[in-house]
């Protein structure tokens, strides 16, 4: 918890970081309150005053972002989409870093055979085609937000594990580790009390990048038609638009979900990079 | 050096073997019966039995696994459940289509990204740097399929410059041969997915190059190069950029493997009949010999790529000695 | 004959706190073949001065006044290309950090050759011959031109940097603490080599160091810098015999001399803040001899004797102050 507070404080110091955090805050607010402030039920077909279905109606006072081919309100769908994006992205990022951090720590610290075995396993996962593998898992295990999180976590931890391991390899030789060993601390105590706190900043940067990547991937899964059929996500809105074959007549259907993803993910990237700059001031480029 | 290569080759073999095994059992152990959709319940019992026997599905799982390994050893990837055609024949053609799109586009992305990143880092602190970084991050943050849709909306539908999809005009080449790739029609269809993919993929090398350059520019040897009276150009290209290329060059082979895997998205939007689209089709139809074959191919590409990347690093950085 | 004339050079750094006056009114004439030692604590501006002469200041530095005349041409106003041409061919430098100054992924021979080809259009064979000759000159086996920097020891790398500096036989050589990273024995070897080469090739040298002893051994004249100002200058003999600025006295005390009875005395306090420098004498806040007017009145250079000057209001009383300055308790007084 402490580390998250320091992270926010460090990011807040830079102008871009502050801006990113504000944008992220807005998205979190939308994820919480979005469904409450949505003007329409996102799945209801809307009819015009002439009792005709509002097919592909352009933006208007009643429907800010227009309607879909089935007459559904796009603005309401957008407001419902923030929640799954953040929940799926956030859980995947947490899972990714939890697995990647532990594997990287153990492999890097113990070295030898343990390292060798863990790294071969990592190599196997590095060889897996990212998106196709997720889709296979989803098509075989059923499509829900939970399976999406699991499937994504299963292939995403690999990069984090490698990055963390490289850092641990150099930390292992530091005097403070030797000092802890002399005091008779056990390997596990040294690993989690001495080494782990030193890789946490790096792990945090990785969490940010994993979050960004998970949000994009979740949308891609939805777009390819393998998303959770029960929930409305920005990816599924785009999938509907693409599948309807009419999206090129209705830019208001296609543009908003992409913009939302782009702005959210950019904010995550900028926040991560702002923190990286705090860790390594040379990146600021004076 | 020889020992190092031998050890790496051994590791690669182990990794590949683990992967083959993982995939074989994955497809059979996850919930859901992949054969259910292939073998139609409408068929009578005798016909179903015959079909099961034909694909070896009546054998115990472990026997199936051994047979699979035996076949792979002679580069036999098996038969498609759907078409009964050899998997390799199906993959081969699609792989060519994917590589024709992905390879040139990744090379262009890395070249533009490397120079672009180096130049904005060199002229750091200005408005140009800020806007390029903002723009590249935004493009990197957008889903590739959405960028492709926007590109089609703008360049194909509104401006009418490019076709909306496919590799050639449908029906134009009823019997495709390699000559198809030498036509203007093919290039016309290639242009838009190539441009979209290049613009998207160049963001990563560009941003990576920029941050590496920012560290390199502060090094003493860059200052000494300038003191020696080298021109700004010589300092930039001969020292700062030369050294910053190291981390970038090593990402290329691995990213290439990922880009082939990631072609799923762009091929779906542009109806490009490549490996990605084949995988999606095969997954939706539970045609898992095809999926397994495609996965294996991508794994080999990625694992080889990582190996090449490590060798490349040793070649470019004399400080690294392989043991 | 003056080969390098620094005439009233002012240089500022833009910092977050505001502009910092890193160099103020630096005046220095270097005659051909002469060796000048520039001494002072870190942060006094000596390295900045060398970088300014080479024209490779950091991006936040600006020359706000004065001239750097090399062979009669003012490099500051001559334009970037003219300055580039003068670098290395006219004024070369032995870099400070031997480990980081060489590009790790290029062969040392190529890095020396590069300095030559940036200025001359010699045929390749001639460049290679010159590189071999240079390496031999500094006592490195010419066959090692094809090795990479990490294959050399620290002392050997420093020799390579000297060979590189001599590549175009520059009339002026700058050396920025060329031996800080090396042990005393290697340091001694390197300086012996530099003295021999100077005898053979006759280049002028500006040696920057915080070690007065090195200056005494290697130089003809001394320039003492403090807070971006020259506070004393004169011949080595003059300054050793009659140091005339309290700061020089302090440095002099800090010198470990054989047969010395007590420990070297260091000057307490820190160098001045150059964003908001002291109003009077910049050394006054640390000076044990400061009078009230020292804190308000900025002194000009005062002539001590012919060719010897010091920036102190109490120059005339220096003969009486000097014995006090040698006592450790003088420097222990309450310092702000």
TrEMBL record, chain A:
Alphabetical UniProt keywords: Cell membrane, Membrane, Peptide transport, Protein transport, Transmembrane, Transmembrane helix, Transport
Keyword presence, Cell membrane: yes
InterPro entries: BP-dependent_transpt_permease, MetI-like, MetI-like_sf, OppC_N
GO CC terms in record: plasma membrane
GO biological process, one term: peptide transport
Entries under Pfam families matching the protein: BPD_transp_1 (PF00528), OppC_N (PF12911)
Compartments in which it is found: Cell membrane
Main location: membrane
Annotated ranges, domain ABC transmembrane type-1: 82-272
Coiled-coil positions: none
Superkingdom of origin organism: Bacteria
Residues annotated as transmembrane: 19-38, 85-110, 130-157, 199-216, 252-272
Membrane disposition: Multi-pass membrane protein
Family per record: Belongs to the binding-protein-dependent transport system permease family.
Protein name: Peptide/nickel transport system permease protein
Originating organism: Gemmobacter megaterium
UniProtKB/TrEMBL annotation, chain B:
Broad class of the protein's primary localization: membrane
A Pfam family reported for this protein in Swiss-Prot or TrEMBL: BPD_transp_1
Topology of the protein relative to the lipid bilayer: Multi-pass membrane protein
Keyword Transmembrane: yes
Membrane among keywords: yes
ABC transmembrane type-1 domain: residues covered: 95-313
GO biological process: transmembrane transport
Family in the record: Belongs to the binding-protein-dependent transport system permease family.
Name by which UniProt lists this protein: Peptide/nickel transport system permease protein
From TrEMBL, chain C:
Domain ABC transporter: start-end pairs: 6-252
Keywords: ATP-binding, Cell membrane, Membrane, Nucleotide-binding, Transport
BP GO terms, sorted: peptide transport; transmembrane transport
Membrane association type: Peripheral membrane protein
Keyword Transport recorded: yes
Keyword S-adenosyl-L-methionine recorded: no
Record GO cellular component, one term: plasma membrane
Subcellular location per the Swiss-Prot or TrEMBL entry: Cell inner membrane
SUPFAM superfamilies documented for this protein: P-loop containing nucleoside triphosphate hydrolases
InterPro entries the UniProt entry points to: AAA+_ATPase, ABC_Ni/Peptide_Import, ABC_transporter-like_ATP-bd, ABC_transporter-like_CS, Oligopep_ABC_C, P-loop_NTPase
Gene3D superfamilies referenced in this protein's UniProt entry, alphabetically: P-loop containing nucleotide triphosphate hydrolases
Superkingdom of origin organism: Bacteria
Coiled coil region boundaries: none
Record GO terms (molecular function): ATP binding; ATP hydrolysis activity
A Pfam family recorded for this sequence: oligo_HPY
Residues annotated as signal peptide: none
Annotated family: Belongs to the ABC transporter superfamily.
Protein name stated in the entry: Peptide/nickel transport system ATP-binding protein
């Amino acid at each position: 918890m402490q580390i998250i507070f320091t992270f926010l404080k460090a990011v807040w110091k830079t102008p871009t970081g502050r801006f990113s955090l504000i944008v992220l805050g807005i998205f979190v607010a939308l994820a919480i309150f979005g469904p409450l402030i949505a003007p329409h039920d996102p799945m209801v077909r809307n009819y015009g005053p002439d009792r005709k279905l509002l097919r592909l109606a352009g933006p208007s006072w009643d429907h800010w972002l227009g309607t879909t081919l089935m007459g559904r309100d796009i603005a309401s769908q957008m407001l419902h989409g923030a929640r799954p994006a953040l929940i799926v992205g956030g859980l995947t990022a947490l899972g990714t870093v939890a697995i990647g951090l532990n594997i990287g720590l153990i492999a890097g610290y113990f070295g030898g055979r343990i390292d060798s075995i863990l790294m071969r396993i990592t190599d196997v996962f590095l060889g897996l085609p990212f998106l196709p593998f997720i889709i296979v898992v989803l098509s075989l295990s059923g499509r829900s937000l939970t399976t999406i999180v699991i499937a994504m976590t299963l292939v995403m931890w690999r990069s984090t594990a490698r990055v963390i391991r490289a850092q641990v390899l150099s930390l292992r030789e530091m005097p403070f580790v030797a000092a802890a060993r002399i005091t008779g601390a056990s390997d596990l105590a040294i690993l989690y009390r001495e080494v782990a706190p030193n890789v946490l900043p790096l792990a945090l940067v990785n969490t940010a990048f994993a979050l960004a990547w998970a949000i994009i991937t979740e949308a891609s899964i939805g777009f390819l038609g393998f998303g959770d059929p029960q929930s409305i996500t920005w990816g599924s809105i785009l999938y509907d638009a693409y599948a309807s074959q009419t999206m090129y007549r209705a830019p208001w259907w296609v543009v908003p979900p992409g913009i939302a993803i782009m702005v959210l993910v950019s904010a995550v990237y900028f926040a991560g990079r702002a923190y990286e700059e705090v860790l390594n001031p040379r990146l600021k480029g004076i | 050096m020889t020992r190092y290569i031998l050890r790496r080759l051994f590791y690669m073999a182990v990794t590949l073997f683990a992967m083959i095994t993982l995939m074989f059992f994955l497809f059979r152990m996850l919930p859901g019966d992949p054969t259910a959709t292939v073998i139609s319940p409408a068929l009578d019992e005798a016909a179903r039995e015959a079909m099961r026997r034909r694909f070896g599905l009546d054998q115990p799982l472990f026997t199936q696994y051994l047979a699979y390994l035996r076949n792979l050893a002679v580069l036999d990837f098996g038969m498609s459940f759907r078409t009964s055609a050899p998997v390799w024949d199906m993959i081969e053609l699609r792989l060519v289509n994917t590589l024709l799109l992905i390879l040139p586009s990744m090379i262009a992305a890395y070249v533009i990204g490397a120079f672009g990143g180096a130049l904005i880092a060199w002229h750091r602190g200005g408005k140009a740097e800020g806007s390029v970084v903002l723009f590249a991050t935004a493009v990197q943050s957008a889903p590739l399929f959405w960028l492709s849709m926007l590109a089609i909306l703008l360049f194909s539908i509104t401006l009418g410059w490019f076709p909306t999809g496919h590799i050639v005009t449908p029906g134009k080449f009823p019997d495709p041969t390699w000559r198809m790739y030498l036509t203007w029609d093919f290039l016309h269809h290639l242009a838009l997915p190539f441009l979209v993919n290049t613009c998207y993929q160049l963001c990563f090398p560009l941003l990576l190059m920029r941050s590496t350059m920012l560290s390199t520019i502060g090094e003493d040897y860059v200052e000494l190069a300038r003191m020696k009276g080298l021109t700004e150009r010589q300092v930039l290209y001969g020292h700062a950029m030369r050294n910053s290329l190291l981390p970038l060059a090593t990402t290329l082979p691995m990213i290439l493997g990922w880009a082939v895997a990631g072609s799923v998205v762009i091929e779906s939007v542009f109806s490009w009949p490549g490996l990605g689209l084949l995988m999606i089709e095969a997954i939706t139809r539970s045609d898992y010999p095809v999926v397994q074959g495609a996965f294996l191919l991508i794994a080999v590409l990625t694992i080889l790529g990582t190996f090449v990347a490590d060798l490349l690093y040793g070649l470019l950085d004399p400080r690294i000695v392989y043991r | 004959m003056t080969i390098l004339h620094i005439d009233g050079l002012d240089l500022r750094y833009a910092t977050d706190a505001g502009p910092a006056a890193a160099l103020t009114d630096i005046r220095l004439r270097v005659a051909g073949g002469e060796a000048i030692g520039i001494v002072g604590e870190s942060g006094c501006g000596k390295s900045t001065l060398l970088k300014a002469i080479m024209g490779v200041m950091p991006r936040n530095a600006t020359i706000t006044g004065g001239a750097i005349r090399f062979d009669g041409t003012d490099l500051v106003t001559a334009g970037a290309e003219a300055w580039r041409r003068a670098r290395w061919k006219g004024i070369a430098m032995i870099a400070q950090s031997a480990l980081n100054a060489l590009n790790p992924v290029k062969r040392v021979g190529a890095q020396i050759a590069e300095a030559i080809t940036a200025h001359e259009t010699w045929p390749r064979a001639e460049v290679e011959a010159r590189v071999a000759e240079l390496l031999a000159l500094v006592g490195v086996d010419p066959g090692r031109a094809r090795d990479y920097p990490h294959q050399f020891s620290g002392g050997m790398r420093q020799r390579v940097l000297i060979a590189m500096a001599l590549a175009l036989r520059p009339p002026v050589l700058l050396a920025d603490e060329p031996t800080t990273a090396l042990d005393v024995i290697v340091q001694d070897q390197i300086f012996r080599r530099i003295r021999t080469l100077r005898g053979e090739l006759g280049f002028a040298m500006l040696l920057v160091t915080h070690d007065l002893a090195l200056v005494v051994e290697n130089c003809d004249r001394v320039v003492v810098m403090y807070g971006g100002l020259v506070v004393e200058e004169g011949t080595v003999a003059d300054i050793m015999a009659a140091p005339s600025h309290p700061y020089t006295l302090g440095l002099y005390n800090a010198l470990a001399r054989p047969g010395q009875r007590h420990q070297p005395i260091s000057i307490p306090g820190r160098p001045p803040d150059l964003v908001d420098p002291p109003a009077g004498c910049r050394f006054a806040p640390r000076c044990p001899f400061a009078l009230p007017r020292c804190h308000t009145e900025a002194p000009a250079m005062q002539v001590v004797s012919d060719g010897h000057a010091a920036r102190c209001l109490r120059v005339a009383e220096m003969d009486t102050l000097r014995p006090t300055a040698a006592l450790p308790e003088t420097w222990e007084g309450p310092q702000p």
